[in-house]
Amino acid sequence: MSDVVLPLSLQTNRRLDKWLRFQPDRTVRLAVGKVEIGQGVLIALSQIAAEELDVALDRIDILAGDTAEAPDEGSTSSSLSITVSGASVRLASAELRARVLGRLAQRLNCAPAELSVEDGVFLQNGNPTGHDYWSFSSAEDFAADITGTVAPKKPSSYRVVGKPVPRRDLLPKVTGAAFIHDIVRPDLLHARVVRQPSRSAVLTALDTAAIEKAAGAPIRFVRLANFVAIVGADETAVQRAAVAAPAHATWTGVPTLTPAMGEAGYFRGQPSDDRHIGDPVAPASGEVVSQTYSRPYVAHAALAPSCGLAEFRNGRLEVWSHTQGVYPLRNSVADILGLPREQVIVHHAHGAGCYGHNGADDAALDAAIIAQQIPGQCIRVQWRREEEFGFEPVSTAHMTKVSAVLDANRKPVDWTVEVWAGSHVQRPVFGGNMLAHEALPNPAPPPKANDPTEANGGGGTRNGIPLYDFPAKRVIHHLALETVVRTSSLRGLGALPNVYAIECFMDELAERAGVDPVAYRLSLLSDQRARRLIEDVAARCQWSKRGPAGTGRGLGLAWAQYKNRAAYACVAVELDVDYEVKLRRVWCAADAGLVINPDGARNQLDGGIIHAASMTLKEKVQIDGAGITSLDWDSYPIMRFSEVPEIDTVIMHNPDMPTLGMGEATFGPTAAAIGNAVAHALGVRIRDMPLTRERIAQALVR
Amino acid sequence: MAIDLVVNGQRVSVAVEPTTPLLDVLRNHLDLKGTRYGCGLEQCGTCMVLIDGVPEYSCAREVGTVGGRAITTIEGLGTPDRPHPLQQAFIDEQAGQCGYCLSGIIVTAKALLDRNPSPSRTQIIEALDNHLCRCGTHTRIIAAVERAAKAGAPA
Ligand code: FES
Ligand code: FES
Would B2-74 and B85-151 be classified into the same CATH topology? Predict the structure, then answer.
């Protein structure tokens, strides 16, 4: 049937045996290209397979992210795993079940409708047939392309999907070794990289004797142009050498940056690629108001610095990485090292939560470069804390100006969002560079500014067009051609700064109109799913009893549908401001359609709230001199236990609607709800994140 | 030179310089990988161990200073087959996203519950405030410690 549109992952991985296999120990091997990055995706995909195959959940043996054995599903990002990979697993499982049962019906000479499956065992009209998946399935069931024509189960019949199910990977993580950092291989050597301070820097002198002395145990150097690594059997010595090394390396061509270059406002007036999306500009007829909001450069700041392992034996390179995409990494590594892609294998291993494109891939390339120079050994590269903060790609600073033309009732009739930002995604396939590639003898050309297309949700423009019923809306995007530090994707891309701007501006417009902010929003919103969330949160936070502005206690609310196509979330925040912001309570409601694992979903939503609150209140990458100077947790503080509010999250029951990705849904609404609550508490608006003590003091004297 | 340690109740001797960080000794010489590197700067808590029952960072602690003292790592609490009640409470609450912060946090929580079997929420928060969790799992982590305390989870 040619009119079936398969999910992307199935289009590129058609054969059933790419996905599923029955194993002799009565388990089912499910192979997927999406990987665990702390979001609990693997248990959700296992639930889907168990549901469609009718086997117990604990029979699903999942293999994730492996270029040797799992399908290519690109990157694990953008809240797409359940919508794309989940849909693929669902169709593949349903089809496999139907194929096997179809053959059984022939064998038993009965109608397929007489057959059912109970934990993998086949029944005919409820009676045993003596057959099951493991005894009856044959190679021919698998050696076929998935057609996508077998209808999966109806949600109303689900037994496994939609139930809160515990993850399996937490037990090792609370008892001992569980991460890439813990992998031990034969012939293991530890390595650290002496980082090139910037893309243009050239190494003119390296005092290896002084570094060897600091190591205190045997080390060796791998040097290729401006790439320098320290390698040895004793990790402590290698680490000592790495700490000492920068003082014994001389570089030229290092830029001199200023803190002003690290502000979002710096992008104004810089060369940019300009685009206009949405309705054409109309001549203004009415009162025009506008405000400008910003967020600085922010870091992923994973709790564990990145790690990569690589072994080069007989021309074949094997790599372990906590990357978001094993196939894209394999391709980049192979191309950079001049190896045929089939000779490079990448295995995914768990790392700390990554929230986007951090140093993971770069650490893997470091290890691969060294391994190629030292064949026959396993090279383990462990980035240092200052290396992770100093060299991971960060999220670009981002400035959003919102303008509205108001009618006589002070409601917008025309709406413009204008964005100035660097690239929100610079993976190697998107014009970005892998870090060490810039130091090699044939260095990568300068990175090219790039952003996801609107069809993929946009980058700087993500959530730039609000879902309110304005007659005319547009977004104007100034994509800076260069950023002063390397940038790439971080949870939500432009959604957080854009939703912050839009939802703060809505409060400002409501105030100007003399209307309650929630009532103002509802009067401009016909999307029923959004209305339901706003009304739910407003009721739970007792919005109607909200006090006057300027008392030091604030209540603020905001909402968005992530990417205007993934999950909806509405968030209200109650806080106190007394020199600094103290969050008290957060209420959240989300609508993600059919939710596979409600417990995992809630974990993601709440995690997003705390992460976004941290970013909104505290986080800013400091830039000065050669690059990033916020290199530890003192200069880059994040939210602590004593600062975390109580959170009350409700997930709407909506199982008949398609699953919507929710990993990033609370991100923008939380930031904006905090912005609105702070404005309510102070009676003064702060438009530039982070909302620190200094910013509050400045706002109060204005 | 050899340094004698008592780790998880076992006497061990390691041949390292006394200035070697305790974290490196645990991970690389004793193969106890549950104690994790996060910063090496005593700022994040992923490397937390108990030294004579008191939570201490191991990343910047020279092994020569802990000779003969009782060191407890996460492996000294329970195993995947027989998790300690605190570890079980974290599973029961599904108190983790990436999980990298958890071993250090559980070690600190163990010291808290040993000292104070029924801590208030505020006392739990105070005890854990040296630990960072980047995934924002804080509220579940607090709930897990409360659950363990309710279940009476002392050593
Ligand atoms: S690794 Fe010891 S506190 Fe971070
Ligand atoms: S669960 Fe990831 S850092 Fe705490």
Answer: no
CATH number for the domain whose boundaries are A8-165: 3.30.365.10
Give the integer Cα–Cα distance in Å for A79 and A75: 11
SS3 content of chain B, % helix, strand, coil (to 5): 35, 15, 45
The response to whether residue A202 sits with its C-beta less than 6 Å from ligand 2 reads no
Q: Which has the closest alpha carbon to A437: A372, A380, A362, A387?
A: A362
Query: Is-contact A401 A464, C-beta < 8 A?
Result: no
Residue located via tokens 């006394």: B18
- pLDDT of res. B154: 46
- CATH C-level class of A398-424+459-701: alpha beta
Nearest CA distance, A385 vs chain B (angstrom): 5
Q: Which of left, alpha, beta for A38 (phi over 0: left; psi -120 to 50: alpha)?
A: left
Per-domain boundaries in chain A: 8-165, 180-254+300-391, 398-424+459-701
The stretch A443-454 carries a mean pLDDT of 94
A contacts of B74 (beta carbons < 8 Å)? 174-176
pTM of the full predicted structure? 0.96
Strand partners, A450: none
Nearest to A174 among B44, B87, B139 (CB): B87
- Is the pLDDT assigned to residue B1 strictly greater than 90? no
DSSP class of A645: P
Which residue's structure tokens are 């002799």? A24
On the question of a cis peptide bond just before residue A690, with omega within 30 degrees of 0, the verdict is yes
Q: Quote the crossing angle between the two packed helices B102-115 and B138-150, to the nearest 10°.
A: 40
Topology of domain A180-254+300-391 in CATH is Aldehyde Oxidoreductase; domain 4 (3.30.365)
Helices (runs of H) and strands (runs of E) counted in chain A: 17, 26
B128 Cβ inside 6 Å of ligand 1: no
**Ligand 1 contact via B100 beta carbon (within 6 Å):** no
CB within 8 Å of B8: residues ≥ 6 apart: B32, B71, B72, B73, B75, B76
> Whole-angstrom Cα distance, residue B38 to residue A351?
12
Residue A78: predicted pLDDT: 67
pLDDT of residue A3: 57
Residue B153 Cβ inside 6 Å of ligand 1? The answer reads no
In this structure, the dihedral spanned by the alpha carbons of residues B26, B27, B28 and B30, taken in order and rounded to 10 degrees, is 50
Q: What is the pLDDT of residue A77?
A: 76
CA dihedral B66, B68, B70, B74 (to 10 degrees): 60
| Banded pLDDT at A586 (limits 50, 70, 90) | very high
Which residues in B lie closer than 8 A to residue A353 (C-beta atoms)? Answer: 97-98, 100, 134-135
Q: pLDDT digit string (tens) for A389-414?
A: 999 999 999 999 999 999 999 999 99
In CATH, what class is B2-74? Answer: alpha beta
User: Residue A278 carries which side chain, given as an amino acid letter?
Assistant: G
Residue B129 has pLDDT above 60, yes or no: yes
Q: Per residue, what are the HEC states of A327-348?
A: HHHHHHHHHHHCCCHHHEEEEE
Q: What is the pLDDT of residues A511-559, one digit of tens each?
A: 999 999 999 999 999 999 999 999 999 999 999 999 999 999 999 999 9
Instruction: Report chain A's mean pLDDT, rounded to a whole number.
Output: 95
What burial letters (b/e) apply to B40-68, b meaning 16+ CB within 10 Å? bbebbbbbbbbbeeebbbbbebebeebee
Please say if the pLDDT value at position A2 is more than 60: no
Decide if A8-165 and A398-424+459-701 have a common fold. yes
pLDDT tens digits along A300-321: 999 999 999 999 999 999 999 9
Q: Please check whether the domain covering B85-151 is classified as CATH 1.10.150.120.
A: yes
Q: Is A41 helix (H, G, I), strand (E, B) or coil?
A: helix
User: Is the Cβ pair B97, A353 closer than 8 Å?
Assistant: yes
How many other C-beta atoms can be found within 10 angstroms of the C-beta atom of residue A682?
20
Domain segments of chain B: what residues? 2-74, 85-151
